[in-house]
UniProtKB/TrEMBL annotation:
PANTHER family reported in the protein's UniProt record: 6-PYRUVOYL TETRAHYDROBIOPTERIN SYNTHASE (PTHR12589:SF7), PYRUVOYL TETRAHYDROBIOPTERIN SYNTHASE (PTHR12589)
Listed cofactors: Zn(2+)
GO MF terms, alphabetically ordered: lyase activity; metal ion binding
Keywords for the protein's UniProt record, in alphabetical order: Lyase, Metal-binding, Zinc
Designated name of the protein: 6-carboxytetrahydropterin synthase
Amino acid sequence: MYSTTVATDFVAQHYLTVPNPGPEGEPHSHHYEVELTFSGPELNEYDYLVDIDDAEAALASLADRYRDELLNDLREFEGDNPSVERFARVVFERVTDVVTDDTVTELTVTIWEDEEAAATYDDAV
């Protein structure tokens, strides 16, 4: 299995909406690091798994979308607790809509909200 990973970082804000979230229930910032790992068993005719320019463009678009935003105010989090786990799923859905290389069979999204805590969402594409 081949894998290609691209990463970026940005600052965004959120607050948790679960019962009794403690201080996490107040708006606060995280310096998020987002890693996208594309996987598949075969390379294309150019010996690429994924066009890295396309992957980096998708990542740049994500960073532009979320940088300095309050996640709670965004449509894709409407009605959901904007946890880092939910954020990883949202990013997965956005990326699989735009990076469509036939050789990619799985995408793993890992989002670090600080140096010690991260969440991952992965699935077949």
